[in-house]
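Worked example 4.2. Below are the chains of a multi-component assembly; read each line carefully before continuing.
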Amino acid sequence: MANYPDDLQYSKDHEWIRVTGDTGRVGITHYAQESLGDVVYVDLPKVGTTVKANEPFGSVESVKAVSELFAPVSGEVIEVNTKLADAPELVNSSPYDEGWMIVIKLSNPSELDALLSAAEYEDFINEK
Amino acid sequence: MSSELKQSPLDAVHRSLGAKMAPFAGWTMPIEYGGLVAEHMAVRTAVGVFDVSHMGEILVRGREALKFIQSVTCNDAARLADGQAQYSALLTEQGTFVDDILVHRFAEDAYFLCVNAANTDKDVNWLTQRAAGFEVEVHNVSAAYAQLAVQGPQAAALVQSLTTDDLTGLGYYRFRREVVIAGVPTLAARTGYTGEDGFELYCAPDDAERLWTALTTTGGATPCGLGARNTLRLEAKMVLYGHEIDETVTPLEADLGWMCKLGKGDFLGRDALLRQKETGLTRKLVGFEVEDRVPVRDGYPLVADGREIGHVTSGSPSPFLKKNIGLAYLPIDKTAVGTQVFAVVRGREVPCRIVSTPFYTRPKA
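Applying the procedure described above to all two chains together yields the following structure tokens:
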């Protein structure tokens, strides 16, 4: 299913992570961007910030609401998608590619085991 | 809980269109369909239609209807002719808002009030209590009406295309009863809550789907939800009960002094307004622009000179102006256009500037 690529892992807070070696690129899912509606602002941490699994690392705002972003894993933020400052709508149009948010250097890769596969995540949102 | 929520006669239609539904003022109503920004822009540039069937309707009739309306509303209903509508308010003894309302004059002995959904029962009770001593009857007729708001620069042409009645001469804040639109008898009022030209169409609940379908399918109006209604009314600086106005603020503080006709004779709340006018306002509703990309939301604190001076009553990105805007009550010395204040957003102080309002005014035709 194109909306939930198989090479990503998903959190129940509707973030995805694409792991490469000991780093993971993080964004929000198709379901999350669709629920939010038109994204107008993304508040992201600075490079060097430490984030903890399941804790807020920033926020994403649509016209009607602000929602917190939760880190799927713990680690250090080593890259931030600065494009989102000028083009927050990329979160809607390209949630898994151009709309990515941060890259985390994983401090505890075993946390990945708690995340969902694409099929499990789809089951999870279909039950909602 | 959801079983206690009232449903619009268009509930199934909204769901079939994929609307996001949410509880609103005791009803379950559509918040958006395809996307709030597209809906907002459709109203600013073309035409959109809103289901506002949750709004309440109250009929006041009897020999002393005018005298009664004059005693419980702050605007001057004596200025209304049959077929005219007026923005007004029910005030407490303290001059604060019981509700803001639209008064439509059917005849000197019959007035049709459109009131906020959440306040309908309160308003009916309020009016009924005060009707004692007047030769007048107060009827909650909300269940007899669905309401569709057709708004936007193309709204008038669209409504005209669906009726053989000639509506071209119907001016702003004028209405006509028994206008047949797409085969549906309506009360068509040239009023609205978006800052655009348009109509609010009242019809029987059983006819609502036929009217909606004609407006959206034949007429091509974009279905719009309450999300867009909120951003549109904010750009036009129209107040919302529970946000800008409630039983703690007066029309003078809400910058609605024009609506209070203190010279018309006695009415409930008049003495309090006169006293407030004499002593002067200590706070006033103002509009501000955020000088940052971060939106400022309802409830966020506003600070100046290191102390809290108020909070945001409504705040949002403005889809049309592409700025972040908001409304707030501020101490009178902070209300001049150009004054800088700061909104506290997640611990960060974000600069905001008081601007003249409304934020958006529709271009003159």
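Take a moment to check your reading of the output against the notes. Helices of chain A lie at 30-36, 83-86, 90-93, 118-127. The CA atoms of residues 48 and 77 of chain A lie 5 Å apart.
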